[in-house]
C-alpha cells in the first residue's frame, strides 16, 4: 500500500515544527529542528495562555466574553492536536506501517485505479482546506490592519503583563499573534486533512477488498485454465486472504481511533461551542463592520472542519458495511461445498461496520453532524433570548 498521498500533510507538519523528519535521526539538523520546534511550541502555547487569562478579565460583559472565547477555543483545539501529534508519533508511524503488508499492495490495474482515485481525493481536499483556512487567517489579519492597528489593539483579545499599547512593544506582540495565526491555520488544515486522508486510505482498502471479494466467482474459470491447481486449495487461500485483509483493516481502524479518540471529543465540543458563539457575534455585528467577512469565514471554517470529520467517518461506516455484501453478490454458491460453508461464516463476520468515536454519543457520522447543529442552534437561541 502506497501512503504517498499523505506526504503533503507530513511536509506541512515538518515545515511548521510539529513533525521531526524520520531521515534526521541524529546530528546537527536534528538539534536545529528541535530548537525550531520548541520555538513554535512556545509561540503557540503562550498565545493560547495569554488568551485564556484574558477570558477571566471579560467575565461580566457578554460581548467581551464572546470576543475573548470564540478564538481562544480554536487555539486550544490546535494545542490538543499538536500534543496528539507529538505524543502519538510512534503510534502513527506504526499505524501507517500496517498498510505496507503484502496483502494491502496493489495486485491489478483495477485496484491501481481505485488507489489513484483515493490519492486524488486526498490531495484535492488538502489543497482546499489549507487554502480556505489560510484565507480565513489572512482575512483576519487584513481586518486587524483596518480596525486594530489604528487603535493599537490586537487581533486576538489577550492579557499581557505589560502595557503593549505604548512604545515599541506593540509591534512584537502584534507580530506574535499574526505569525501565530498563520501557524494555527496551516497546522489545523494539515491535521484535519491528515485525519480525512487516513479515513480515505482506509476506504480505498475497503473498496479493494470489495473488488477482490467480487472476483471470487471467477475462481472456477481460473482453475479450468490451469489444470494443476487444486481448486479447494485455491478457494481456501482466497477466503483466508479475504479474512486476513479484513482483520488487518479492523486493526488499522481500531488503532487509528485510539490515536485520535480525545481529539474527536475536543473537536466536537469546540466546534459546537464556537459555531454557536460565532453565530451570536455575527447577529450583533453591523453590516458595514470590517469584521463581518472574517466572522462569516471563521464560522464556515468551523462547520467545514466538523463536516469533514463526520462525512468521511460516515464513508468508512458505509464502505465497511458493504464488505459482506460484496461477498454475498459474488456467486459464491457456485464454489466448492466446503468453501460455501466458510464464506457464509465470513459474510456474517464482516457485517459489523467500522466506526470512529470517543464514546457512544460522539461517533463520526452524518447523524452526529446533524445532532451537533441542533445543539448549536438550541444554545444559540438561548444566548439570543438572554
UniProtKB/TrEMBL annotation:
Main localization (coarse): membrane
UniProt key word Transmembrane helix: yes
Membrane-spanning ranges: 36-56, 68-86, 128-146, 178-202, 259-280, 292-312
Pfam families in the record: 7tm_6
Topology relative to the membrane: Multi-pass membrane protein
InterPro entries cross-referenced by the UniProt entry: 7tm6_olfct_rcpt
Keywords: Membrane, Olfaction, Receptor, Sensory transduction, Transducer, Transmembrane, Transmembrane helix
Location in or out of the cell: Cell membrane; Membrane
Assembly behavior: Interacts with Orco. Complexes exist early in the endomembrane system in olfactory sensory neurons (OSNs), coupling these complexes to the conserved ciliary trafficking pathway.
Family, similarity comment: Belongs to the insect chemoreceptor superfamily. Heteromeric odorant receptor channel (TC 1.A.69) family. Or2a subfamily.
PANTHER family in UniProt: ODORANT RECEPTOR (PTHR21137), ODORANT RECEPTOR 46A, ISOFORM B-RELATED (PTHR21137:SF37)
Annotated protein name in UniProt: Odorant receptor
Organism: Diachasma alloeum
Lineage: Eukaryota, Metazoa, Ecdysozoa, Arthropoda, Hexapoda
Gene, per the UniProt record: Or112
Amino acid at each position: 500500500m502506497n501512503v504517498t498521498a499523505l506526504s503533503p500533510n507530513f511536509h506541512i507538519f515538518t515545515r511548521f515544527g510539529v513533525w521531526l523528519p524520520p531521515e534526521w535521526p541524529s546530528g546537527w539538523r536534528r538539534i536545529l529542528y528541535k530548537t525550531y520546534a520548541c520555538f513554535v511550541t512556545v509561540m503557540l502555547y503562550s498565545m493560547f495562555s495569554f488568551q485564556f487569562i484574558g477570558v477571566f478579565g471579560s467575565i461580566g460583559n457578554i460581548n467581551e466574553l464572546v470576543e475573548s472565547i470564540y478564538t481562544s477555543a480554536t487555539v486550544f483545539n490546535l494545542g490538543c492536536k499538536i500534543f496528539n501529534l507529538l505524543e502519538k508519533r510512534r503510534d502513527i508511524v506504526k499505524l501507517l506501517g500496517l498498510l505496507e503488508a503484502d496483502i494491502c499492495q496493489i495486485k491489478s490495474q483495477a485496484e491501481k485505479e481505485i488507489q489513484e482515485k483515493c490519492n486524488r481525493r486526498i490531495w484535492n481536499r488538502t489543497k482546499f482546506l489549507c487554502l480556505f483556512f489560510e484565507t480565513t487567517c489572512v482575512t483576519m489579519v487584513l481586518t486587524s490592519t483596518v480596525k486594530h492597528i489604528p487603535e493599537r489593539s490586537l487581533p486576538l483579545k489577550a492579557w499581557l503583563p505589560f502595557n503593549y499599547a505604548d512604545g515599541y512593544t506593540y509591534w512584537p506582540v502584534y507580530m506574535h499573534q499574526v505569525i501565530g495565526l498563520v501557524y494555527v491555520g496551516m497546522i489545523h488544515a494539515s491535521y484535519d486533512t491528515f485525519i480525512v486522508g487516513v479515513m480515505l486510505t482506509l476506504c480505498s482498502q475497503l473498496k479493494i477488498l470489495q473488488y477482490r471479494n467480487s472476483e471470487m466467482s471467477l475462481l472456477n474459470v481460473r482453475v479450468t485454465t490451469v489444470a494443476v491447481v487444486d481448486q479447494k486449495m485455491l478457494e481456501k487461500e482466497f477466503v483466508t486472504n479475504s479474512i486476513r485483509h479484513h482483520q488487518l483493516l479492523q486493526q488499522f481502524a481500531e488503532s487509528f481511533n485510539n490515536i485520535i479518540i480525545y481529539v474527536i471529543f475536543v473537536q466536537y465540543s469546540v466546534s459546537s461551542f464556537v459555531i454557536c458563539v460565532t453565530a451570536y457575534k455575527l447577529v450583533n455585528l453591523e453590516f458595514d463592520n470590517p469584521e463581518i467577512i472574517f466572522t462569516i469565514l471563521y464560522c464556515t471554517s468551523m462547520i467545514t472542519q466538523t463536516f469533514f470529520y463526520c462525512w468521511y467517518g460516515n464513508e468508512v461506516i458505509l464502505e465497511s458495511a458493504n464488505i459482506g455484501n460484496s461477498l454475498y453478490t459474488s456467486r459464491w454458491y457456485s464454489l466448492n461445498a466446503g468453501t460455501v460453508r466458510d464464506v457464509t461464516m465470513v459474510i456474517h463476520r464482516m457485517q459489523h461496520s467500522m466506526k470512529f468515536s470517543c464514546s457512544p454519543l460522539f461517533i463520526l457520522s452524518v447523524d452526529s453532524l446533524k445532532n451537533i447543529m441542533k445543539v448549536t442552534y438550541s444554545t444559540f437561541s438561548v444566548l439570543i433570548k438572554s
